[in-house]
Amino acid sequence: MRNAVSITGIGSICAAGNTLDLSMVSMYAGIRNCSPPVLIKSSLDTEYPVFEVKNLSDKLPGSRTVKLAWKALHEALEQAGLSEKELNGKNVGVCIGTTVGCTLNNEAFYRDFKAGIKPDIKPIHDFLSNNPALNISKALDLKGPVSCPVNACASGTDAIGIAASWIRDGICDIAIAGGTDELSRITYLGFISLLISSGTPCRPFDKNRNGLNLGEGAGILILENNKRKRKSLGEICGYGTCSDAYHPTKPHPEGKGLLKALSMAFAQAGISPDKTAFINAHGTSTPDNDRAEGNVIKSFFPSEVPVFSSKSYTGHTLGAAGAIEAVFSLRSLLDGRLPATAGFTDYDEACGIIPTTENIEIDSGYAVSNSLAFGGGNSCLIFRKEG
Amino acid sequence: MVLSVLGMGAVSALGGSIDEFRAGLEGHGKPFIEVAEFPVYRADSSGLQNKRSQRALRRIDSFTRMALLASFDAIKDSGIALKDMGRTGIIFGSAFGPLNTTFAFQDSLIDDGDKCASPLHFAASVHNSPAAQVSIQMGIDGPVQTLSAFNHTVSGVLELARSWIENGIVDTVIAGAGDEYCPLRGYATARMLNGIAPSGIQPLDFDKCSYLPGEGFAVFILANGEKPSKYGVLKKTSVRVGIDESNSILKDGKNIKALFLAANGNNGEGETYAKINAGNIPVRAHSHLYGAFPCATALSIAAALLSEENSVLCAEYSGDGELNLYETGEK
Amino acid sequence: MSLENDLKSVIISGLKLEDVSPDEINEDTPLFGEGLGLDSLDAVELVVLIKKNFNVEIKEMEEAKEAFRSIKTLAAYIRLHQGK
What we know:
The structure holds three protein chains of three kinds. Chain A is of the alpha/beta class. Chain A is built from twelve helices and twelve strands. Chain A has a ten-stranded mixed beta sheet with strand order 3-2-4-5-1-6-12-11-7-8, sandwiched between helices. By secondary structure, chain B is an alpha/beta fold.
């Protein structure tokens, strides 16, 4: 008998709010904090709006990406009733996804190196100590497995799926799972160069959507088997991941891999798609993503299942996205309430999706969260709330 | 569960195939060491041109070329056609990812300005680019994952492969790990060593700093331990084991015939390797043949699977005086 | 050297099409799909190559679609917008 995977604590930080409570308040109120970047300067003629986190404490350790993870972790641990100290020396796993946090993209350092200035190599040492999963595992002196999925924009979802398999397989009793990413000039300019960044706040599934807005943040979940007998908030019931084997940046037009990933997740959960309370879509607001994902949702789920894109409040937080969306999904199940998707006004037949246009009540059932990634990765998680 | 190793591929300074890697281990063939600012072990992926057309490779960068070549090599080595491998997944690991493309993207900003940021380089700079390209080029539409956690990368890859196979998610995993060289790594190494280049890595001289950077990629074709295997099996992976515990594993492991260390001339890590008590069994290390890089542990495990001693313990420094242990065994 | 020939060599080197020689590209050869076989990722790189080499900025892909049909249409687009 494999262990059930309980979630005993959740935390998040993003432009919608520096805590999960604050994020839910602003989402239910329809407030979007999307504006030109403060921390990123460029020589482009136009500024592209982003979802930036404000007032992140300097006292947290590590790079901005690592700080974001710590902030969300503190919130999740508190809810789980765990102190950092009591985790010391224990078989506790850490699985945190990222994209920026694994990349040696200190531009100032590289500029100096390139210019032959022979810069001090402190940025290399910093890089080596800022892998988010290792940083947390080391600081808390944990003895469990440690891993950092870097599956582009699906990393956060995959981290939770992998950590859940650790609990299910009995590899560790507790796992810290999630994703984290800071806004960076590299990703900012990269997404603009791909012509998939929008100059206005994003409009997931809208007919006139014209791209994504980048964001930053972190989402952390505390996963456990039942050993500690802590009150569970909910359960991870299914996880699926599958590649399109199609193109480096474009999703498969019929969402081949996403369909397989959903089938895998539902098979693991042992339920049928009609038990879905809502879908937290990847919903980036790029023309290609929303069309491919919309077609899959239409064919896989009953038409009445509500679709929400939290990226309309957080921007696309890359490696953090799947984790923040997992945290929001469980919280919506617990609140019995799902926010309106901001920015949607005009129905697009090519997507065939009308996302939530007002806050709606959710009675029961399972939440599904999708992530699609560069490289053709597709990953899905299924949650239910306790009771 | 144990995993059968059906085939292996290795791209390293010893050449672009597992056969050249084996020959190098046996003392036939020398590693290719390029001397630029600092000596560096360079891998040779040119063999890929015989396997794929120039058109198919046009957007494939140096890092992904190593991964692709090692994957083709591993499948060929297994003697099993991909279509006969059943449901197949890919799990790759890298500490640094596609470094040269990461910096090529920054070059586009620095040389030509923010408006000329290169989308091609940006798209290929993601760490999952090699796994994605192997999936695209080979048509593997199963689960595909990439992990990156410095000295915990290889253990993560093998552990996830076990989980996928044990839980019936796939039948076969193309599991691999590697890192590539870039001039910035050479510069950083030179700075760390105060510009004095060691004459060559002496991995078993634990007190001495003889570190030289390298690059390479190893791939394992893994399946359920029931399957007939070419190289025996990968048994348990024990992560973050203290010295006392590893010594007792070695002492109790009556069948363990040799100890292979991922030691690479870094005397900081050497302190821990020096405390291992291997008793009477031989202790080997091979980084003097392929250089130092975090995922070189994958090459070390490949060497263990190739060795005549059928039951080998591999130890990798995992940080803070601890080790990750990998055990190979006879089928 | 004509703009058309410049364009061909920029495309061949910038999009790593070294298996194609400039003579093989007819001025009416479709750049995308059948023809030269470029895809959407090449299209966005082409936008940058044109900015970098000909100082013509393309801000919306919709606007570029017509221009990206062939060497001939692309050269015409560049002539029209250069120096603006």
